[in-house]
Amino acid sequence: xxxxxxxxICIAVAALAVLAGIIATVMSRGGTASPAPPGRPPQASSPPxxxxxxxxxxxxxxxxxxxxxxxGYLLPESAQAGPGVTNDGLASRFADTPLxxxxxxxxxxxxxxxxxxxxxxxxxxxxHVTGPDASEMLSLDQDAYxxxxxxxxxxxxxxTGYQWAGxxxxxxxxxxxxxxxxxxxxxxxAIQIQAQxxxxxxxxVAPPGGDWxxxxxxxxxxNGYLTFPGQEG
Length: 233
Fold this sequence. Notes:
The protein is of the alpha+beta class. Helices cover 24% and strands 30% of the residues. The protein has one domain. The chain contains five helices and 13 strands. Strands 7, 8, 9, 10, 11, 12 and 13 form a seven-stranded mixed beta sheet that branches. A two-stranded antiparallel ribbon has the order 1-2. The longest helix has 14 residues, at 3-16. It is globular. The relative contact order is 0.22.
């Protein structure tokens, strides 16, 4: 990766923080969701192969998502997928479905951004990020917040599309496509996010070195990605 490419990716990633992100949607499948406890999105059944622990590429209907503006970031919400709880800038209780995993990836990854402040990024990383690089992610955020690194306040990138790399009810991986302005030019980046179902909720696996730029690749367009509609904010 060239220095210029890495700078462009870092700007795009920091702009959304993403992880992005992310961040979708009701699975098109049959069956009836079982009742859920109050405050928790209803659960939908997974495809047979996924339920058996075999990774699948699920068919995902993202048309029903609401995109909520949170400190300049457009983040998805769904009555079916979650988050079921949003308090003090935090988000939790996502459904154990492909839709829930996708929505969780975007919401959790975005809230790991230092721009949200330590009252958000620290508990998000403590309780909703897993993996050996989670502590490094927190350290990088604390340094960036203390130094005022970056350009908080926008313009921000936005999650525009996704590709599934694999899904089971306990482990999900997707490539999320973002677009954002870099030096007046619309730039696209794809960020791979992995999430694991742990203790009744999705947790995002911290990227290598705790830096989302290490999981990002600059792409030329959204060709090959399924797109998210309805991002009016």
